[in-house]
Each structure stands twice: as structure tokens, then as C-alpha cells.
Amino acid sequence: MVKAKNEYINREISWLQFNARVLQESKDHRVPLIDRLRFLGIFSNNLDEFFKVRYATVKRIVDAGKTGKSVLGGERAKDLLEEITKIVIDQQARSLEVFKQIDKELRQENIFIIRETEVNESQAEFIRDYFFKKVNQELMTIILNDLTEFPLLKDTAAYLAVKIVMKNGSSKGKHNRYALIEIPKGIDRFVVLPKEGDKDYVIMLDDLIRFCLDSVFTMFEFESISAHMIKITRDAELDIDNDLSKSFIEKISSSVEHRKISDPVRFVYDKSIDKDTLQFLKEKMDIMDTDSVIPGGRYHNRRDYMGFPSLGRHDLMYDKIEPLPVKGLSMKGSLLDMIAHKDYMIYAPYHTFSYVTKFLREAALDPQVRSIMITIYRLASDSQIASALVNAVKNGKQVTVQIELQARFDEQNNIEYANHLQDEGVNLIFGVPGLKVHSKVCLVEREEDEGIKRYGFISTGNFNESTAKIYTDYTLFTAHQGILKDMSKVFAFFETNYKINKYKHLVVSPHYTKATFMKLIDKEIEYAKAGKEAYIKIKINSLTSYKMVDKLYEASRAGVKIQMIVRGICCLIPGVEGMSENIEAISVVDKFLEHPRLFIFGNNGDPKIYISSADWMTRNLDFRVEVGCPIYDPDIRQELLDTFEISWKDNSKARVFSEKQDNAYRKRAKGEPELRSQFEMYDYYKRKLEA
């Protein structure tokens, strides 16, 4: 059935609305001031990645001379690029206003981010000393006038475009000199100046360089010198060649290297730049009017605000929570023994992620453990997970790691880990041709009196100690032999992927996830038509599969009550009479990044509950290996129902999805107490420990 355009929200536009919610956090006075500045950095980082991936994809469609309507929800690709650029220009302008307000409030707290024009005499001495000791030797400076070919600009870098007005130059500026200075990445973007009384001073590295420009260009006799920031964003799609003589690691490495010279998809410049400087740059860089040219503020690469120094002002940052233990799961005893008797669930960061590393370290040392198998998508830069796996090899265990080399923007990190693990004797699997492996599973085989017994864990998130502090994710520890027998089939599929296995418990993409969830929705439709209670509760990151959207619309029309918590992209429009009036959808954006995938189907009073690594996106359902797991333990089932309700009842940080796409906060009823779900979640788990 052909859908009208207004039955879906375009995924790119919906993503930009998600990033607008991130920008809202930087405006929200309930968020501590320094964290508001860091949210501004997250907003900027998100936007960079959006242009590298999603905008670049749409631009490729345009460059190929196609409309793209079939894959863009009815939008013409060319029109969509124009709409995106318009929205981004507006969001950038709003983000600049937000920064001005934050800067004003920082000054009220005696924290001053000063420009080069505000430097006093004692600060000038410190800055020049800092420049010559740490910065000058790191500068990459290029004089542009006489170059026959414009230098290749990195999409991860910010540049100062320098205009040097020479003495005795003509009135038309023919003797102006132009240069580029690359902002060094190896030096902190924020330079903390000596404290003066109770006042803290910070200068951006960009402005520190501006202050010392006369020292950089001493070879010229100039009347004036000015510098404005520019940056470009390049297409980040990996173009993998078909050279049969190369290993898969070599192909991915080559493709990552090729990103450095891929096509630019966005050019951002300081809107106060001189017109002649801008024109000079655009001509030299062959930038056309059809390209995404974004006028911005004085500072780019504002993602660096994520690392704004604390200055010891913990009163201006979120309190760090102490991760809780799981009731009944002691870090002191054997986790394998405890899991043998009962399933356990951790919900990071409310619970400590240390259970995962403890599980692997115990398996690495246990004389009865024969093998460990695990999937890896993103690892921490200094991974305890990798260390435990190497430790297992050294103790004679057979260790198999399926590592995804195409994990977006983590390719180089994963390549380095792959080489390291392989050198240490780990058996590596590099995925399935044509499919990314996004599942989050681990299987341990242990020789016991009755034979081989399996233990394992299944997660909604990456096995990454760093992100586990800021991403919310469920991880199930289990010794359910049926579930783990299915898991062994998943690993068998990695080795012999021409054979499609059948699973009794797990829900596995690309062969079964969509069909399984379709059947579960159909069952709720049957119950609704029979006059029985029928409901669906979903918590995911993104919903972009039009087939799943259509099925939810069908369920809504049949009378199934649907509650959805979608952090990011949502192509479904809830609350439309005759189409989706039985669907409600919210997004919670707060201190932690909401990352779990949870699915609850009413099933006529006996709910079916699943956690999964898969969002309801076409890529997750059809082009990735994903694993979903049913929850059988009654205590954990109730816990998941409870945690969904806590998130659903959020009336502080919940935004309501609607046709308006205005990111309106959910309204609180008169007299209703405020419920901020992430804070309430922590209290919920504290109460469980005390019960």
C-alpha cells in the first residue's frame, strides 16, 4: 500500500529534531551550568556525525541523478538537502544564542572565557610563554597565495583562515596574503589561565593563537592581520574494494584511510569573515552554491566543549552516582555459581558494569572453563574486556571473538584491537559478508560433572567500560541452557553463514527479528478484536522501518494500546485519528544516554518480554546480526515492567512526539509531583537493595 507523505516523519528530519532535544538540555536551567556547556558540545558532535553519514548519503543520491523518494519516505533528495540546510542554519543560530547565555552565566559564577582582546598584562606574559613552549612547534601553517593546488583539509580539524593585509598593498587588496593554520589536536582546546583572586580564566586555544599571530608571521610587513575559523565535513561512508588479494582488515584499513580524501559535504565558516577572504577560499576549494555552506559562529569544532575543564567547580556539574550492586549477586563469590541457580540483570549505569569484567576474569581463570565466545562492537580505549580475553588465552582457554571492523567511527580502534588479540592467540571472526554484527552476546562453556554446561550474558549495549558510565543498558546473566544453546548457533552462523539456523528462544536478525515481532503484534491485534486487553510497550533508540510503522498503525486501528519511548529518530506519527490514535510516544533526554531496547507484549495477561540489541530500523532488522532474548525469570520480568513504567511516567525530561515536531515537554497535571525518571530509577534500585 502506497503511503501518503504525511503518514511518516522523514528520518533525517526526525534525527535533527532529536538533536534539537540535546540542544534543549543546554538551555535547561535544571541542568548544572558546566554540563549545559558539555551538552552544547554533544549537540555539535552529533551534527558533525550527521553530515558525515546521513547528509552524505542523501548527497550521494543527488549526485547519482536519482530522486531517492522510495528510500526517503516520499521526499525528493534534492529538496531534502535544502530542508536540512535550512534547519541546521536555524539550529546553529540557536546554539550560538545558547552559548552566549551560558557564557553570561559562567561570568556570574566568576568563570571567564576570554578572547584575545580581553587579555591583561600578566595573562599576556603567561599566554606568550605557553605559546612558545607548547603551541608554536605544533602549528601547521600554510601560505595559500602561490599554491597551485589547495591543501587537503581534514574533516576532523578546525582551521583559522588568516588574512594578512600587507603594507603598501593596492587598494584592491591584490597584495593581501592568505594563510591557513590548523588548530593542533594534541593540545587542550581550553587553556586554563592563572587564577586571579576568586576568578577563573579560560582562553580557547584558537584565541591564544590569534593573540600570537604576529609571532607566526614575522617574515611579513603587514598593516593588519585577522583570523576566522573554517572547517569542512567529509563523507564518512566506507567504500570497500573487491581486491581478493587483500585481507578484510587491509580492506577496512584502506577504506578508513580513504576517508581523508572523500568528498566534502559541508563547509562551515565564521559569519564575520571578510567577504574577500570567503570568496578566495570558496574559489580555491571549488565550493559551489549547491553545497551545504553554513555560516556559523566564531568557534567551530564545538564538540570540544564536551571536555570543558571542571575548574574544581563540582557545584556546577552533575553529582557522580555510585553504581549499585545487584541484590543477591555478590562480587566476592563466584558469579558462575550464582548464575547457575538464577538469572540476574544489571541495568548500567545504575548498577556497576564491573559484573561483566568480573564474569570474564573468572572464566579466564576457572580451570573447568573450556571456551569463551564473545561479540565485540565498540571497546573502551583501554579495555578490561580485551585484557580478560587475552588472560583467558594465556590460561589455555579457547577464545573466539567476533569483532565488527565496520563499527562506525570505531573502525581504527577495532582494527588495532583485532591485531592485538590475534597476536595474543585469540581466534578472530570478521563477521558475515554483507552484514554488520551488532549483537551483544557472550558464551562460556564449562566442563562439569554432568558434562559441558553453558553460561553467558546478553546485552542491549556495548561491552565498554567507558560508555557504561553514561549509557543506560540492560545486561542479562543466565545459565538457561536453551537460550545458550541458541547462542552457540549464533556463533556457528558466524563461521558457516551459508546455513540458516532455527532458534527456540532467541530472536535473531536478519532472518527472524522482523517476522517474530510482526507475529507478536498480530497476536495483540487478535486479542483487541476479540475484546480482550491488548497492549504493546516499546523502548528503543530509533524507529525508521516503514513496515514496522505500518504494522503499529494497523495495531492502533484495531484498538491495541501502544506506549513507545523512543530516544532518537521516530518516523511514526502518534495520536492521529483513524491512523494512530491509540499510540503515545515520548522521548527522554537527560543526564544519561537512553540506550536499551525493551519490548513488552500484553499476551492476554501473560506478558511476553524481550531485550534486544536491535532497534526497529531497516538496517537492524534486515542487514545486521542482532540478538533479542526473552525474559523468563519472574523477578527480572517484574523489574523490566517497573523500569518501563518509571521511564513512561517521566514528567520532567519527557518530550512528546506529535505531528507538530515541536519537542514539547510533557505537561504535568495540577498537583502532580515531578518525576525525573533517571533519578527515580536510581532510587528504585536503592530501595530494592534495602528491601
Automatic annotation (TrEMBL):
According to the UniProt entry, its GO molecular function terms are: polyphosphate kinase activity
Top-level taxonomic group: Bacteria
Sites where the protein binds Mg(2+): 378, 408
Give residue ranges for domain Polyphosphate kinase N-terminal: 8-113
Enzyme class, UniProt record, top EC level: transferase
Write down the chemical reaction(s) this protein catalyses: [phosphate](n) + ATP = [phosphate](n+1) + ADP
Q: Which residues form the Polyphosphate kinase C-terminal domain?
A: 335-499, 506-678
Role, per record: Catalyzes the reversible transfer of the terminal phosphate of ATP to form a long-chain polyphosphate (polyP).
Q: Which family does it belong to?
A: Belongs to the polyphosphate kinase 1 (PPK1) family.
What protein am I looking at?
Polyphosphate kinase
